Amino acid sequence: MSGGSLDGSLVVAGRRIAGTGGALRAIDPSTGATLEPVFDLAGVEQVDLAAAAADGAVDALRATEPRDRAALLEAIASGLEHRAASLIARAGQETALPSERLEGELARTTGQLRAFAALLGDPAGADLRIDRGGDGPDLRQRRIGIGPVAVFGASNFPSRSRRPAATRPRPSPPAARWWSSRTRRIRAPRRSRRKRSPRRCVRSGCRPAPSRRCSVRAR
Q1: Which intervals of the chain are annotated as region Disordered (predicted)?
Q2: Most buried of the four, 12, 32, 55, 181, by CB within 10 Å?
Q3: How far, in Å, CA of 61 to CA of 68, rounded?
């Protein structure tokens, strides 16, 4: 998003480049209309370029002070909040979800960023351990960044159709529920058919059961 508008280009190492992996358009699920702009898809060359740029930035970012990395995360959260109106409007077009739900998604994202920023400011977050070796060298351990991480974003983010209820397909029962219920029926233990010994009437001692006129119930 550049200047508050989408241009569909890729951003790799701080530069906007065109993708060679094809293109796609977003679709409004409530109307079926295609949305602008056309998004470039990354090809093998762009993926390799992004991976190399991320790998080259690891050492420099790891050498920074924790407060500098915390400030970076805080700046990202603030930038998202600054563009909240346009982000929520666009997400609403692509998913047909209500603005309240999307506002919650945005708040969850910024909250996670600030939580990690607070962790960087906490000395306990580094999990520093020092094992004094006496006359020998000390053994020291702390947490460090592991390097670039590839994130596979969900391509099936839930969308809500705004079609009338009468035209919506009725959901079928989950297969897992049907199978579990069928499994329970198959595995249900059979009732024992063993003949029980006849009960004795507590008044007259008759077998196998008291007559219907007996007022004392058998035990």
Answers
A1: 155-219
A2: 12
A3: 9
